[in-house]
UniProtKB/TrEMBL annotation:
The chain crosses the membrane at residues 34-52. This is Uncharacterized protein. It comes from Streptomyces smaragdinus. The keyword Membrane applies. Keywords: Membrane, Transmembrane, Transmembrane helix.
Length: 510
């Protein structure tokens, strides 16, 4: 009698690779960079034609193109001069206009009917309107972002706990979540973007000891108490609480406006309330899909809970679950200062000390270039104790047909570039070979019905002082390296980058 040998199945791996901007002309360049190179070449040509002196003619003929190429290609403090130009210009304009923000919530007051006077948000957020909408037995806060023309709503979910499962359960969980993304992208709904937020905060390290003191048996033997005290002293005193949130985003377009108008006409309400009704319907569908993916929804975020979450991101001393007296105007900090280029300072009126909190935000410049497993973000999410951080991943979903067309265009361009390099007898770059294999793998996934996803990651680190912030930034950079990620800190624009880790589903250009 013979038995078939057990062949282990290969575990799922991920290979995202570096982002490659595509301009109208050129490869791996942005349109602005190509325009700068063309402008430099044009000025050099005009100088060679119009300048009468031979020495100056040579200088202008060679100087302008070289300056343009240096501004685009030569690294300068981690970026190029082309990248730094707009950042420095915006930062100087912000300094001229004033970088301090002070909330007027204390002096705003209320109307006679009990409604609160609205208070504007800090710089970088834009105009926001809050709409409460019933969501089952609770309520959910629907935010209308006038400047971005988007509609968002957030729910709190339980982390899937991928690290506590075996390989088969991990694969099944990932497949079910992929089904959720495919349904949202290819469905006839209005949600086009999802954001996952992972908030990590320090918990009370003495909570267990306090519980033992309060609920322990005083009649227990002395040797048992001593033994338990020794065991407690040997355990690490660092403790963390992890909270996960999902934000759904709808783009306000003509179809959404028509649907909201039809609902408002039928229910005899305003158009904004019709938009909120559409968001509640979409959010209910997403919650049903989350249940099928074995991800439990804890609660929707109403006005009080969402305000408490935003307030806690500016001031980590504020407990997230403390929702008493939390309204939309109390969500913002009392003071905010973006004067420092390396970090953002924020302070609330309930802060434990007079010193403000320091926040620094980085974006994921490069995703894994080598195959990684399901838990490749574990060093960043779990294995970094005593660092207050928020990890945000924003996913822009597109239907399978559009993703296939974009993949075919990219593959055609890469094949043409490879053919040109072969005709010139140049050595093949192994990174280009790996990129071609990634395109082929993405084509196979899209052919099987997967949805197209454009994603971007942001990480915000919060500390009490600039010295502690510099230490925590080094810790996060090391953890990101273990996750095969490359980070770039958003110096001189932290007040805008910080918004991308708030539950607003921002940070990704359409």
């Amino acid at each position: 009698m013979t038995t078939d040998a057990h062949v282990p199945t290969a575990r799922r791996t991920y290979l995202i690779g570096r982002s490659r901007p595509n301009a109208i002309v050129g490869r791996n360049r942005e349109s602005g960079e190509i325009a700068l190179i063309i402008a430099g070449a044009f000025l050099g040509m005009m100088g060679g034609l119009l300048v009468p002196v031979l020495s100056l003619r040579i200088v202008t003929l060679m100087g302008f193109p070289l300056l343009a190429l240096a501004a685009v290609y030569v690294p300068y403090r981690g970026r190029t001069f082309f990248k730094w130009f707009e950042i420095n210009r915006s930062f100087k304009r912000t300094l001229r206009q004033g970088t301090t923000y002070r909330s007027d919530a204390q002096e705003a007051g209320t109307m006679l009917d009990g409604r609160e006077i609205e208070v504007g948000p800090p710089p970088g957020i834009g105009r926001i309107s809050w709409l409460p909408a019933p969501f089952g037995p609770d309520e959910v806060a629907v935010l209308l972002h006038a400047d971005r023309r988007t509609v968002t709503a957030a729910i709190e979910i339980e982390g899937p706990g991928v690290g506590l499962r075996d390989s088969e359960d991990q694969e099944a969980l990932v497949d079910r979540f992929g089904t959720l993304l495919k349904h949202v992208a290819n469905g006839d709904g209005f949600v086009t973007r999802l954001q996952m937020l992972a908030r990590t905060l320090p918990a009370d390290p003495d909570a267990h000891a306090k519980d033992v003191t309060q609920r322990g048996d005083e009649q227990s033997p002395a040797w048992l108490k001593d033994s338990y005290d020794q065991l407690q002293s040997m355990v690490s005193t660092s403790s963390e609480q992890h909270r996960a949130y999902l934000v759904a985003c709808m783009a306000y377009n003509r179809e959404l406006g028509s649907e909201a108008q039809a609902i408002a006409k039928a229910a005899k309400c305003s158009r904004d309330e019709g938009i909120a009704t559409v968001m509640v319907r979409e959010l209910g569908d997403i919650c049903a899909r989350l249940a099928e993916a074995d991800i439990r929804v804890r609660q929707p975020l109403g006005r009080a809970r969402l305000s408490s979450l935003i307030h806690g991101m500016y001031d980590p001393d504020h407990p997230i679950d403390h929702i008493q007296a939390m309204t939309e105007r109390n969500a913002w900090p009392a003071e905010l200062d973006a004067m420092e280029p390396q970090y953002l300072q924020a302070k609330t009126r309930e802060s434990a000390t007079r010193d403000p909190w320091c926040h620094a935000t980085a974006w994921v410049k490069e995703w894994p270039m080598t195959p990684v497993g399901v838990n490749f973000l574990a060093p960043l999410l779990v294995h970094t104790p005593d660092v207050i951080r928020t990890v945000a991943v924003c996913m822009d979903l597109e239907p399978t047909e559009l993703a296939i067309e974009r993949m075919l265009t990219e593959k055609t361009n890469d094949d043409a570039e490879a053919s040109r390099q072969a005709k010139m007898n140049r050595v093949v770059d192994p990174r280009d070979v790996a990129h071609h294999s990634r395109i082929d793998q993405r084509g196979d996934d899209l052919a099987s019905g997967a949805a197209g996803i454009n994603l971007v990651g942001w990480i915000t680190v919060s500390s009490r002082s600039p010295e502690m912030l510099a230490r925590d930034k080094r810790t996060i950079r090391a953890a990101a390296g273990k996750s095969y990620l490359k980070l770039e800190w958003c110096d001189r624009e932290h007040h805008r980058a910080f918004v991308n880790t708030l539950p607003f589903a921002t940070g990704l250009r359409k």
